[in-house]
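Data availability (excerpt). The following record was deposited with the supplementary files.
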Amino acid sequence: MEDGLPRVLTNSVFIGRVIEQEENQVREAAEKEARKVTRMTQKTELDAWIIAKAVRTEANLVLVAGWKVEVAGWEQKRAQMKNNGKTHGWGKVPSRPKMVPAVIKPGIRASTENDGDDDSSSTGDKNEEE
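Predicted structure:
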């Protein structure tokens, strides 16, 4: 046998390798199942994010449409006052409304949380202070 193992199947080295291989198979099966569960969870989170993003976009469009109506009314008032010979008094342009903030995409949130857990930079600072 060219793998360096003994030919006798009762040898302790061979038995140890068989046990190690079986443990690896069980561990790999568990990891595969965990990845499958994670993938399903991420899919449901992504679907919820897509819905939230669509709702946010629609709300922002409504806000902007209302603002544009206000601006149009302001411009009309300004034009009327200019026609009457007044140089000011029509007030400021209505300010743009605050938009609904963006919802963080699920995959991005997970990567930023992992970046924050890195303590290597803080330990380097402690060594420099001493």
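Summary of structural features: Confidence is low (pLDDT under 50) at residues 126-130.
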